[in-house]
């Protein structure tokens, strides 16, 4: 508070004074950013660094000061906490970090994230997020173009699970729009169909939306994990004989484990024959709009179609499209294509290496980047494959790994009492 101003007091609180010490805050941000640059970005690809300073939960809880107190901590202690957080976290950009779902940092999206966190926008109306809504529109337009559609609509969700739930809700709304206002009581028993190899979020979405997990019919797959169209049609007829109403088929392009692509053309023909929903059309706003008049006024001074919050299951959203946009701008479409091609080439290289090495058994030739294999320890290599062999290989003792889904790692298990020579090197 400057000396020239008289304090404005309400219940003993000064309203026209600074809420925080600006200089201290600015200095903290500067030091924290320097720490991130030194300890995360610059060390990210150093193979001499550890992937993770692993500690069991009980021990890590003792090493970190996690308690929140009545009074604030001094800046030097806060910076030490930041350093500890980095030190004990998994370094996802390390050359020896592998995960089945994601890789490490992207420099351009990191910069974009810093910008959005500093601006702290809320994406729901154009007047509060003009740039980020135009960015999202540009990314969606380009993605629709890449798919090969002439027009379309979309919105960024916080992840695939929420996207699957939204797709399920849209399909239900298409058949029974009254569900939005009247709820579930007037609906018949609805059945949706998906691959036996689908993502587990399908069951979660059915549970959350009140459809019920028992009304998710899992279609048998072939040896490569692809949905069998003939089996889909059988289940559709079965559901109808039960007096239920089929309403949705969820196909998969790249299953979680095997990386299988369902035969979309054949599935689409079945859906057309049975009037089942397989695609997303213009239902987003109709399905989710709550017409909140205090927020989505129709008489604004700009095109209100940019107020995208009314077609999202959320209201306020993070500007996730900005990270993708920044990376796309930096690399270009050809640069992103090169990343995909490199991942595919790496998967082919890995398959060749697995075939050459004793003790590694490839499950099947990959269709995508997912590589599924077993590591066979020396103690089992001379044993004939059969029920006893697979039982011993699957016993839950020392773990080994199978690489799938974009060259990530998924845990499997060793037979009991594996000797030192049976273990895989940590690298």
From TrEMBL:
GO terms for biological process: carboxylic acid metabolic process. Transmembrane segments: none annotated. Belongs to the group II decarboxylase family. The gene is Gadl1. Keywords: Decarboxylase, Lyase, Pyridoxal phosphate. Homodimer. GO terms for cellular component: cytoplasm. This is Gadl1 protein. It comes from Phodopus roborovskii (Roborovski's desert hamster). Its cofactor is pyridoxal 5'-phosphate. GO terms for molecular function: carboxy-lyase activity; pyridoxal phosphate binding.
